[in-house]
Specification:
Blueprint: H1 12-22, H2 28-37, H3 41-51, H4 55-61, H5 66-75, H6 80-99, H7 104-112, H8 130-144, H9 147-156
Helix pairs in contact: 2-6, 6-7, 6-8
Protein name: Putative toxin-antitoxin system antitoxin component, TIGR02293 family
GO molecular function, one term: DNA binding
Pfam families: Xre-like-HTH, Xre_MbcA_ParS_C
Length: about 160
């Protein structure tokens, strides 16, 4: 069995292109102001498209009832708390896509299926609160840096000289 750990490198082009594709600032004062003012509804449709999700499906994950979603479409903007959940979803989607080296379908499948490192919960179910989203992002960070690979190697004896 091959337990090689790949080197992780941040791809700045991918980082910029993702945030442009969803129509959302990635960091800084502009993001902060956008969240306070409310994300434009167009961000929602772009985010669903990039994620490969139906609009109703994304609404379920970011906990926005259909009637509210229809009102936001008419207004053209989300409220601050809804915008924050949209941003959290985008952040988790971006991180999972990076984890799978740009493979959007593998990232999507990972988000939609139960994950052992999250207590058997699906990552998309953990967007509603910042604490849960942070747990997902922390797990992705550990996976990117090979923490679970090293724990597994230790468990099977490779790092104790038994392998």
């Amino acid at each position: 069995m091959d337990y090689a750990i790949k080197e992780y490198r941040v791809n700045c082009d991918t980082n910029t292109s993702f945030w442009k594709a969803v129509g959302m600032p990635s960091r800084g004062a502009k993001l902060h102001q956008t969240l306070r003012d409310g994300m434009p509804y167009t961000v929602y449709t772009k985010l669903a498209s990039v994620a490969g999700l139906e609009l109703k499906e994304l609404a379920k994950y970011i906990i926005i009832p259909q009637a509210t979603l229809q009102r936001r479409a008419k207004l053209g903007r989300f409220k601050m708390d809804e915008s924050d959940r949209l941003y959290r979803f985008a952040e988790v989607l971006k991180a999972s896509t990076d984890l799978f080296e740009g493979d959007k379908e593998r990232a999507r499948q990972w988000l939609l299926n139960p994950v052992r490192g999250l207590g058997g919960r699906r990552p998309v179910e953990m967007i509603a609160t910042s604490a849960e989203a942070t747990a997902v992002l922390d797990l992705i960070g550990r996976l990117e840096h090979g923490i679970f690979a090293w724990v597994r190697l230790l468990h099977i004896g490779w790092l104790r000289g038994n392998g």
